[in-house]
Amino acid sequence: MEYIQKIESPAGILTVSSDGKNISGLWIEGQKYFGKTLEKDALEQNLPIFENVREWLDIYFSGKEPDFMPLLMPKGSPFQKSIWNNLCKIPYGKITTYGELAKQFELENEGKKTSARAVGGAVGHNPISILIPCHRVIGKNNDITGYAGGVVTKIKLLKLEGINP
User: Fold this and answer.
1) Which of 14, 25, 50, 94 lies 20 to 30 A from 7 at CA?
2) CA 146, CA 34: separation in Å to the nearest integer?
3) pTM of the prediction?
4) Are 131 and 72 in contact (CB under 8 A)?
5) Which residues are CB-contacts of 97 (< 8 A; sequence separation ≥ 6)?
């Protein structure tokens, strides 16, 4: 069973999903791929894990780095999960590029080749926005490239972390 809760935030209304113990999704209202991995019969319910996410978001949107992370369990392919895991390693207030993430994937997978474009596809389909910080990935020339929640939101999140794009 999957559960959802809506949370108001400075980035817009967020829909958070959970299996009751782990966060499986966090989407900004209107974002591309909104609810793509969400079960059709998800129930709206208040759960302790949602309070945990709300606390994390309150700290984050106050301009501070939260010192904890709710349990995350995104739904995706092994490749996507590998890329999302590496997104979680990008420190607060830092950025990386799609190309750097591709190199990191190749190092971790015995030289198995991937492209920055394939990485971009995985980043773009991240089902747990903000918590899995896909907004910290930029283009190779420091270009602020697409973001499922919108480029304006991406810039807002980067500035919140002290990054001037």
Assistant:
1) 94
2) 15
3) 0.93
4) yes
5) 116, 137, 138, 139, 140
pLDDT of 149 reads 87
* DSSP one-letter code for 91: P
Q: Is the pLDDT of residue 93 over 80?
A: yes
pLDDT of residue 155: 94
Which residues belong to the active site?
134
Domains in the chain, please, with CATH? 3-61 (3.30.160), 78-160 (1.10.10.10)
Q: Residue 25's beta-bridge partner residues?
A: 17
Q: Kindly tell me the number of DSSP H helices and DSSP E strands found in the chain.
A: 5, 6
Task: State the burial class of residue 83 (Cβ atoms within 10 Å of its Cβ: 0-12, 13-18, 19+).
Answer: buried
Which residues on adjacent β-strands are paired with residue 43? 3
Q: How many CA atoms lie within 13 A of 16 on its CB side?
A: 29
